[in-house]
Design a protein that fits this description.
- By secondary structure, the protein is α/β, with parallel strands linked by helices.
- The protein has a single domain (8-242), classed as Metallo-beta-lactamase, Chain A, CATH 3.60.15.
- It has 11 helices and 13 strands.
- A 7-stranded mixed β-sheet has the order 1-2-3-4-5-6-7. A 6-stranded mixed β-sheet has the order 8-9-10-11-12-13.
- Helix 1 links the parallel strand 4 and strand 5 (68-72).
- The longest helix has 27 residues, at 232-258.
- It is globular.
- The structure holds zinc ion.
- Residues 77, 79-80, 180, 224-225 line the site of zinc ion.
């Protein structure tokens, strides 16, 4: 558990603020990017339970509410966007989101209720609250239409796969804010963890999105979970590896489905795979703890079972 982690400079214009989700460092980040005119874009908002920590981090960086030009979220899952309403009200700034996700920020009730079915009693502790964002404050983004803010220009890519409405922003310094479409890579853990939650994971779309990102050849990937993959070579290697990791985990779950295993057995299967991978990579101590805390085998199984029903089972029937 940590109560303070100072914001970290990733580039001359970009900082990483640790949201300390559930008191854990190095799991969920919010990025700040200084625009050409000196104002600031926030990328990601974090959970609704950690906005005070984010605001504290912004204070540490000397960022006042009036310095915030806008917020953008890569997608509307609660670890990225639940805090957006609160931060938008605090800064009086507009919120950019892919147009397919905008309605969930205007009215988070459905999103919240479906998360409640998964998280139950842990809802408040993890996600706090999710304030609706007035529609006139929301700015929908579309693939290929660049975002111009404060004299800086960002490329906007629709990168579905993790979520239907997932987007990636590339800033003028060549940093790609990749959200969760390029998986989870925690510090001091040499293993990419697939990020495959329900309801709309799609392995083919995720692979295509990784290819799209690779074609744009960013100089670094900024992962919300957690931090930077530096340099074109490392970025290309990472983006080539993600689809293989996703497929390996999907294959493992598929073997369980084909063996008739129930949800709990599939979850046990995913946990076992995860532990075996951590053992093989000699990940111990704090990094192992963080990886396990960030991991949610329940969600992975729900996501992959859904994916299987929607794609694999249908294809095998010849109806897809
Ligand atoms: Zn996430």
């Amino acid at each position: 558990m940590s109560d303070r982690v100072p914001p970290r400079a990733l580039t001359p214009r970009t900082h990483l603020v640790d949201t300390l989700l559930a008191g854990e460092a190095g799991m969920v980040g919010v990025f700040t990017h200084e625009l050409a005119d000196g104002s600031v874009l926030l990328i990601e908002a974090g959970s609704g339970a950690t906005t005070d920590t984010v605001i504290q981090g912004l204070n540490d960086l000397g960022i006042q509410p009036s310095d915030v030009r806008a917020l953008v979220v890569t997608h509307v899952h609660l670890d990225h966007a639940a805090g957006a309403g609160h931060l938008a009200a605090w800064s009086d700034a507009p919120v950019y989101v892919h147009l397919l996700g905008a309605r969930h920020l205007a009215n988070p009730t459905r999103l919240w209720n479906s998360a409640e079915r998964i998280y139950g009693d842990a809802m408040q502790r993890l996600w706090g609250r999710m304030d609706p964002i007035p529609e006139d404050r929301l700015r929908p983004l579309e693939d290929g239409r660049p975002l111009e803010l404060g004299g800086s220009r960002f490329e906007v890519l629709h990168t579905p796969g993790h979520a239907r409405h997932h987007l990636t922003l590339i800033d003028p310094e060549g940093s790609a804010y990749a959200g969760d479409v390029a998986g989870i890579l925690l510090e001091d853990v040499p293993i990419i963890r697939p990020a495959l939650p329900p309801p709309d994971i799609d392995l083919e779309l995720a692979a295509a999105s990784c290819r799209t990102l690779a074609q744009h050849a960013p100089d670094r990937l900024l992962l919300t979970h957690y931090g930077a993959v530096e340099g074109q070579e490392a970025v290309q290697r990472h983006l080539a590896t993600v689809p293989k990791r996703n497929q390996a985990w999907a294959d493992e779950v598929q073997r369980g489905i084909e063996a008739g295993e129930d949800h709990d057995a599939l979850v046990a299967r995913v946990r076992q795979l995860e532990q075996a991978e951590l053992d093989a990579a000699n990940v111990e101590g704090d990094p192992r703890h963080r990886y396990t805390a960030m991991s949610n085998a329940d969600m992975t199984v729900m996501g992959l079972v859904r994916h299987h029903a929607k794609h694999v089972a249908v294809d095998a029937d010849g109806r897809g």
